[in-house]
Amino acid sequence: MRDAVDVVVEQWSRARPDLDPSPMRVLGRLSRLTRLAERELKVLFSEFGLERGEFDVLATLRRSGSPHGLTAGELARSSMVTSGAVTNRLDRLVAKGYVTRELDPANRRTVIVALTPAGRDLIDRAVAAHLDNERRLLAALDQGRQDDLAAVLRTLLLSLGDEAADPRAPGDL
Question: Where's the HTH marR-type domain (predicted)?
Fold first, then answer.
């Protein structure tokens, strides 16, 4: 069976036989897979009234293990987006009643973001559904192939400098 990437690679092979388009077989498929998966994830998150970035913030707070929350800066670093983007996400989540912002009593210049009980309940339900959805998306691969693919992708990410400096990062899984 052929996919869209096979067609593109064949077209480049004919159009420019002097070039080796084989990297497109991997990166083209990763790109297309990301777009398809993102579309599926968007549908799931919308069922919970969330956008992807809002899910990321709630998930980061939930898995951080801190009963007191995280600073906005910690959230920005873990989600790999600008502080402005985090502020927008937090504004929406505060308005929905899922997080609070409070001044850190130890440092009044620092704002601590924490889950509300409603936010914790929502993310607990959403992450369970998210994992079920991810299992569905990976169903074409048995566990051994999933493990092999995960290891190969880790190797590639590490080769490109994507090392985890903070156990809370990144926030978009």
Answer: 20-158
